[in-house]
Amino acid sequence: MHYIRFLKPPRPLITASPASLSAKITVTTDLGESFLLSNVSLVVELEFKDGTSVLGEGKGREFVWKGRDGMRALEILIQVPVSKGGRKIGSEMVRMLVGPKEDALAVDSFRKILDMQHQNDDSGEIGGIVPIRSMAIDINPGAKRDDTPGVGMAQRVFSMGSGNSQKGLRIWEETGESIARHIWDAGLVFSSCLAFLSLSDSTRSLSHAQKLPILKKALQRPNLRVLELGAGCGIVGITLASSIALHSVLLSDLPAASSILSRNLSTLPLPIRPKLSSQVLDWSSSLPSNVASTRWDLVLVADCTYNPDVVPDLVATLGRIVERRVVGKETLVALAMKVRHESEMVFFDLMRERGFVVRETIKIPLPVLGGEREEIEIFVFAYRD
Prior knowledge:
By secondary structure, the protein is an alpha+beta fold. It has two domains: 2-138, Immunoglobulin-like, CATH 2.60.40; 179-383, 3-Layer(aba) Sandwich (Rossmann fold), CATH 3.40.50. It is 19% helix and 33% strand. The chain is built from nine helices and 20 strands. Strands 3, 4, 8, 10, 11, 12 and 13 form a seven-stranded antiparallel beta sheet that branches. Strands 16-15-14-17-18-20-19 form a seven-stranded mixed beta sheet. A four-stranded mixed beta sheet has the order 5-2-1-9, with no helix packed on it. A hairpin with a 7-residue loop joins strand 19 (356-366) and strand 20. The radius of gyration is 22 Å and the shape is globular. The protein starts with a strand and ends with a strand. The model has no long low-confidence stretch (mean pLDDT 87).
């Protein structure tokens, strides 16, 4: 998959006449290691904080990402009308939205993510691009502005479920270069699977390759206690808490991810918010007392095996967690990964040595626009008594 990112978040050009917003974007893979190599039409829209279109429905400005020419960044400049429907725009906050013009390319729902696997085409002509929404921007000429360089925020929005189960998920991530505070492919695909596994009709929603009966049954346990390791932005744990009735979900990561986790938890709907919490958990240290004393039913891990140097600490942490399980009751470990290097396979050797066995696994094809097809793998482990 590819992701639209703000290299320079939108800023008002007050001296321009009429007033305008400028930004710089790029379109890259999840880790930013490669750029989109295809030519794609993008549409830039503006909306008020209440979601009303500023420019008018279907009147966004079109820009072209020229990946075939080696484009690495695209400058955006869009004029802001003085008023819209009796609303004086200069007195309100607005957001900038950037996404592909072709709806089939827009990764804006979990259903689309799971349906991508059925696009059996290795030509590089199909794939997905995740749209982006900026923070609210004050374009009032008299507004106080901070020109100090810093890290901004941007939002990803996905619809969950289908039909009457359709809900929206909004996840903030940083616009900076830190990979710890962005959404990655395996976490996004894993979230999509969890959302559909929670539906009563999920066997119709998922292909045969995506059925995870052991994990699905585990999600039906009453008072489920879930721990996520290396949560990053928190999309996996937040998706699960938004999809099923459970006791609690604890999102954990290093201190660098604390601020983005707190932001995403603080903006959740009130009915969901009490079920979620976050805290620092360093795999190279002993377990915090509250984690060590809890009998966890399920541990979630996504996109955490890319660095083989920390894998021994990850496996050791998982071992310490399952040691606290209730006798006769499994603590499952559900892991999602996109293999980026053969060195990641050391994780499975260490898990086997530590006493874990794979109970079930699936592979989900992921077409890449302008590139070769990739795969997301999901493994469900249990501890061997």
